[in-house]
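note to self: dont lose this again. the chain is below, predicted strucutre after it. 398 aa total, dont forget to put it in the shared folder this time
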Amino acid sequence: MPHVEIRPARPEEMAEYARQAARQLAMAESLFEGMDPAWTLCAVVDGAIATTYAAWPLQIRLAGRAVRIAGVTQVSTHPAHRRRGYLRAVSRRHFETLHEKRETAFAGLHPAWVALYQRYGYGSVHQRHTYRIAPRDIAFHRALAPAGTLRELDPAADFATLVDVYRQYREPRTGLVHRGRAMWEAGPLQTPPAGHRRVVLAYQEAGQTLGYVAYHHGSSARPRPLVITDLFALTPAAHQALWQALASYDNVEEILWDNAPADDPLPLMLAEPRHLNRGMRDGIMARLVTVEDAMAQRPYAAASELRFTLADAFCPWNQGSWRIATSPEGGHASRIDGQDTDFTLAPDTLASLVFGRFSASEAAAAGLLEGVRNPDALARWNEVLRLAHPPHEAEHTW
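---
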């Protein structure tokens, strides 16, 4: 039998960690250089790294509040060691450690496949909306004639301006991460592909920046694309002004944006929204590692209570029945094992409900809630978990 250790990589093992993860994930080894060995967790088989796994210590918005989340990343297993349960063992150990420390109640990740991580209790948090539109098709059925001006920003000199707009947009929302400078530089401000030029345009009124768009474009491919890497606007006028600027590119054949928010106003602004050629794909997933801590951190839309039975064999400390007393300030969790609850659900469904991916009524219609005893309970859950904005996540880096 092989000797298996579940432990962090040692500093002297990080070069091998990077080599293994880069090979399995088809990424450059240089992308793993900033990882702290203390943030890793590996399956080491007979002294060799078989499974790589790491978690960035991040903050994410949840109903307008900043909460800690372990941003799981760099997950891979050597082909010779797959289907042996090593990732399951690593994930279980990670959750156990988070629960023991009680500092971070959530974990999140970008899944290779949703089904792979549902088995560990992760639920989908949001969907990525994609646009593919020709500049000539950007026409507004109610043009706002923005009164402000556009100017090009220097990402280095004007970095604080970008951060300020992003923060203002982020504050009331769910899913957006608190970006450090490294996340900016590895994400929306990263070096564009060869032959492309990066541009950052900002919209301003009375000296105040109300939106920006970061993109790159070039003539090295056909059709000639303009690729948006970041776009945040605080007012309708700013939104239209930025898209009018993109529409003016006569040498661009299509504009691509792979991460528009679900409540992006552009489809309502365009005269022919079908020209956006909208698509959807899954975004990040989240996991409530310690349910009582996680439910306490989320603000709620109403003072009420949620009663549920959670079937969570992977994190047995969550298993059982719970009552959450809710308010706009947060929640208070207490165990009510043996008492009546509204329904029974799995941890992936609970995560999707807490982050606002879908409502309790939608979950019930999909058969994700068992034993709904009172239909009125669904309306109560819908109201209590209601968000001002649908969840949205805009990162490229974890």
